[in-house]
Amino acid sequence: MSIIQTKDVKKWFGDFQALKGISMDVAEGEVLVVCGPSGSGKSTFIRCINRLEQHQEGQIIVDGIELTNDLKNIEAIRSEVGMVFQSFNLFPHLTVMQNITLAQIWVRKKNRAESEEKAMELLERVGIPEQAQKFPGQLSGGQQQRVAIARALAMEPKIMLFDEPTSALDPEMIKEVLDVMKELAKSGMTMIVVTHEMGFAKEVADRVMLFDEGMLVEENTPEEFFNNPKSDRTKLFLSQIL
Amino acid sequence: MVDLIKKNVKSLQESLFSSIGSSVLTIATTYLVINFFRGMLGFALTSDKDWLAVLNNMQLYMVQAYPEEDFIRVWLSVGLTFVLAGLSIGIWRSEERVKSSQVFNSFFKGGLGVLFFTIIAPTNASFMGNDGSVITEEVFSMDSRLGILIPVVVFCVIFFSIRFINVKFTVNSSDMVFFYLFIPVALLWFVKLPTIQLDQNNERIIPDPIMPIASSTKIPWTVIFVSFLVSYFIGMYLKNIKSIKSIMSLSWFLLPLLIFSWIFKKPQIDMSLVLGSDLPIFGVFLLWGFLVITFVNNSIFKKYYSTYLGVTFLLTLAGVFSGLPMLAKTCLLLITLFSVVVPAVSTSSQGKRSLLIVWAVALVTLTFLLRGGASDTGIVVPGSSIFGGFSLTWLLAIFGTYVSFPLGVLLALGRNSKLPIIRIVCTGIIELTRSVPYITWLFFASVTLAVFLPAGVEFNLIVRVLMVTAFFSGAYFAENIRGGLQSIPKGQYEAADAIGMSPFQKISLIIMPQALRAVIPTLVSSAITAFKDSSLVTIIGLFDFLTIGKTVIGNQSIPVNFVGHDRENLIFVAIVYWIFTFTLSRRSMKVEKKLGLGER
Amino acid sequence: MKNGLKALSFFRNVVFLKWASQIIFLVGLLYIIWSYIQNAVVNLEQTNIAFSWGWLGETPGVSIAEGMYTLPNSGRQMIQVGMLNMLRVTVTGIFAATFLGTFLGIARLSKNYIVEKTSTGLLEVVRNVPLLVQIFFFQAFVLTFPRLEVFDVGTYNLHVSAKGIAFPWLNRQPTAYLFWVYLLAILILANRIYKWRVQILEREGRETRPFLWSVGIFLGLLVAGWYGGYRIMGIIGFLAGYISTGVDLLPAIFYQILFSSIAVFIGFKSTKKFIDSKKSEEAQGIYSDDDYFKIILNVIVVLLVVVLMFSSVGLGLSNFLVGDEIVFKADWGVPQFFDGVNNKLYWNPEAKIVLDPQLDGMKRAEIIDWIAVPGTEVTEGDVVARATAKDLKGDLNQEISIYAKYTGVIEEVFVSEGDTVKINEKTYDIRVTDSKPLELSRPRVEQIGTTKFKRYADGYGKSLSVGYFAIWLGVVLYTAIFISEVVRAGIMAVSKGQSEAGLSLGLGRGALLRLVVLPQAIRVMLPPMGNQYLNLAKNTSLGIAVAYPEIVAVGQTLYNQEGQTLPVFLIWMAFYSTVSLTISTIINYYNRKMKIVER
């Protein structure tokens, strides 16, 4: 059964239509890679899923809850969906530990000891337990992004959204982040990843999608997508980035 | 040593006489500066100035008409501040060390300064008499010039040469504070100046007797100095206690409240009110807090938690606009906040116990302070207020900041809000408040505000001034904070949303701490401006520090005639304001550098 | 379960919550405001001082120490004097503070140790002492000089006494305004000529001597102007006369309709533009809740303006603009303004001659006979009337002559023979036909009538009252210090890389500052500079502390007289807001202009 369902989602920024009717399904445990040229609406789309942007027409249903103006639904969906941003967006005034425990304490209402334990566990999972007491500004980009992943995981989400997680990183740091993501994918997490890392897509994706000008151009398995694309737009895109 | 002098001479030459234009500029400026100082010294020393008008009125300056039999309260206030300062310096003791040569160097420089003034001081100075004729008199004789010059030269030479002896002696920079404070306290005992004394018929004894300066204050100052020193050592000892720093910050916040509501005020406590109103309210809220803490983990409570919060919030709103006692209103506000915070903090039984203690202590403090603040004063003073002179200036400055800062935060948030009506209203309030000068708001407080209050409700002028100051400084604080809010990237809001925080949590935990940190320097300069602006209350007839100097002493003719000595008093007032603002701005610059905010 | 709760779910709808909370907030706020106004109404009823504007038209019965009219005939005129006094300090102060501040700012960046330390020292002193203390000090400084009475009557070069400071000055004659306008015009012309010559230089590449041209023409026109040519500017007054007559014919309702139509038009235009932007092909006419709010707000604001325009407020405003003599016996309306321009800037400007103010102690004068009648041409010094001056009780009579102060044609006589006039009241208007626009004169100390009191004579040199001196020096010095910080920061922001680039081109330090650094620094400096100007304007309100009659002091005098504190407060608010808005508009204009230059 599908955990995310969207039907004909449309979104405008003033005069500009960013999404022109996106319909898709994501099954539980599936890893979906979304790619496309910049301005194609792929980031807007995944930001609509946890309502950082508000869609204006169509339906988005996450885990059986429809995303409407209802406050309760928005809260419920946000607590099930974790998000990792391109620019990390760690809280610079808090230590790594506080960054990870903050939401557990204030949103999940866990006590401090419990949440610190959880945070250490997650830091070990992403491979930087020794950085717990540092401030984000003292870490490298790759380490910061791994903290961001740990922060999102601390909420125990069912779905993880990645918005170009590696495009603000130096090449040598990309690998450490991708490794964490691969490990996460193998553990059975449902993931939607917006990225240009085609290697990652080939290796772990169950499906690959191509967005262009606010429309879903192609949806395919990785093998088919890379070796035997259906549309000409995909061929052009692949020829440009590969 | 010769090399050093050569090097110095060369660098001087480069900076002062690098070109003809520069040389002309140097000579012209030097001429101007020297003549300015000569003029100032001549001005200060001519016989038409009476500096006793300042010296003899220190008591008036500090506390105006505060009765002498209760002075122990004033000294206690000052003493407590110093004790807290000593503790703080001990706790935040820096590990920075000052080399002895640096200290000697500053002595040498100070000596040079005195030397400079002694040399340029004019022998004769003139002033215009009442009949328009110019009177010239000797103000600084050759004998007294030499009398100062010779010891100072010796002093300079000693400290100049001592720098070259290789002493590896260093002093902790925090310890130096005590050394610098020790000097004026010791001087109180030894330096003698003319003092005004009156004979049996209340006539001035001329010539004025020469006595140690402020002979009435040298003992309290010494006691304060000693307790300052003692608390410094205690502070060093307490340094490692957990969360001592936050306790100290809280004490600094509470100290002015304690001083102004209890120590300075000497409240007359009505026990029937304490028993009949304070204790029941205290009990109810203590129980309420206790219940919240006890049932926080209960599943039924958890289920209806949001309903409980909503009801509490509505109760608070209704309570604040009702006729409940002030204590109940404040407690309602506090319990709302407490109910929000508790579920996040306590679960273990130990955590619960400490939370209960915190709640009880907070309630006791609040009850204590409010009872003191609301009671009548036992101090009998002629005039309307027990606050006058410097104590009033401080009251206005501190409480002005206390009330305006939270309002500034709210206004800034409102102006930055996504909700259009709230944004429009807050923008309107800020812009309207800022468009008119402070003095018009003070007039509003003194004459117009009463018109808008319900019949029977009357506030003291000082309270009304604080009310308008809240809005006026608040609007300026709001603009500063808004600058900080705008510097927070959009991603921070999104990240907080994405991890499911509520708007209140997002603002208080993520956005505000960052925004405030970004604007500390501008906030400090706004606070300094507010301190300076507090002098404007002199125009609406409050007896602040400036009023004492300008009006009270300027019109004083009994027992000693000081009429027409405005200039001396204004210079003294200016110097005192200068010391405080200058120190404050220098400290803030240091903090700014520490935070690395100055560099971009 | 989910469906069962659906009916209640609008309570959790974010859009509903958003607007419900705002409307509750607004209603709460309006309720609080309303209840305070109710309090005010009740309280004012009890004290028998109902809120009114009537006092604006009544004679206040107090005098003002200095300003355009010292004995104002209405509350409005008194406020006008206060406003002008405030603007006098503000405008001259802004120029002086900018000049001094720039100078100090550059001095603080000097490599010269003494110059730098001196200016930094000045900064630290002035910045850290409250402005009020400084102003009091300047006041005390002048006040402790001997009283004026101890000095001899006579002419001085520079004179300081407890009454103020006096120094030589170019005194304005009635034609001075005409000359200022002429000067401005030829300055603009010279600037245009400079640009035109530079254009030719750039296009044709030949030496066109733009500087020589513009300065030459400027000087030529200046000389020609001084010897009478400036009167050509009288064309402005000539035209203003016709405009005044034209506007006078308009009824008040014209402005009401005009303003409402403008409001409707603007509202309609902006709403339509907004809707059009939503109608485009891609947006498909979908509106969010905020968009609806915007449209509704537009409509509400327009309706509010229209209703206001046709209520008593609008009528009052219109009466004010047409200068209705019945409701407002003011000289403030639009026709009165153009009338004023007509008088001041006509080729023979009008001057008012008042009964000689030397006769203090003498309060009234009875005109015996007029020698000059309207249409007579008189030269300076001619006797135009004879009168008997009387003191307050009327038992001391003294025959005096009234002399013509200017050469010209008598325009209008205000009093007839046998009338008694107050001293300082104007007795006739004259069209000035022959006078230099400016004359240098030195201050004079004179006796007031036969009393033992003395004063600085009017029209001789310039004398500053103690209050004016203190407030002016205070705000200028204080603002200049803050401006110097702005200038320093601006130059520092630019100078790093730019200085190196400039030096590598071989520019000297002066040229570098003038040609490369300052033009760029000004862009950085403008917004904070504007803030300082706003502060200066607001700080002039401290004049009240040293008895300088600016708007706040005058307002206080008025409400002490009439008890109308609330209207006075509203006037303060309106006036200061207008001044602030004007200053920020000017600064924004230059800011935009600078940005265009940058591109």
What is this structure, in a nutshell?
The complex is a heterotrimer of chains A (242), B (600) and C (599). By secondary structure, chain A is α/β, with parallel strands linked by helices.
Would you count the extended β strands of chain B for me? 8
Find the structural class of chain B using helix and strand composition: mainly alpha
Mean pLDDT of chain B: 86
How many DSSP E strands of chain C?
A: 16
In this structure, how is the largest beta sheet of chain C organized? 4 strands, antiparallel
Shape, per Cα inertia axes of chain B: globular
What overall geometry of chain C do the principal axes of the alpha carbons give? Answer: globular
CA distance, first residue to last residue of chain C: 64 Å
Strand content of chain B: under 5%
Provide structural commentary.
- Chain A is of the alpha/beta class and 242 residues long.
- Chain A is built from 9 helices and 10 strands.
- Chain B folds into 3 domains: 237 residues, no CATH class; 111 residues, no CATH class; 217 residues, MetI-like (MetI-like fold), CATH 1.10.3720.
- Chain B is 71% helix and 4% strand.
- Chain B is built from 24 helices and 8 strands.
- In chain B, the strands form 4 sheets. Chain B has a two-stranded antiparallel ribbon. In chain B, strands 2-3 form a two-stranded antiparallel ribbon.
- The two termini of chain B are 41 Å apart.
- The model of chain B has no long low-confidence stretch (mean pLDDT 86).
- Chain C is α+β, with helices and mostly antiparallel strands and 599 residues long.
- A 4-stranded antiparallel sheet of chain C has the order 5-12-10-7, with no helix packed on it.
- In chain C, helix 14 packs antiparallel against helix 15.
- Chain C is globular and about 95 Å long.
- Chain C starts with 13 loop residues before the first helix and ends with a helix.
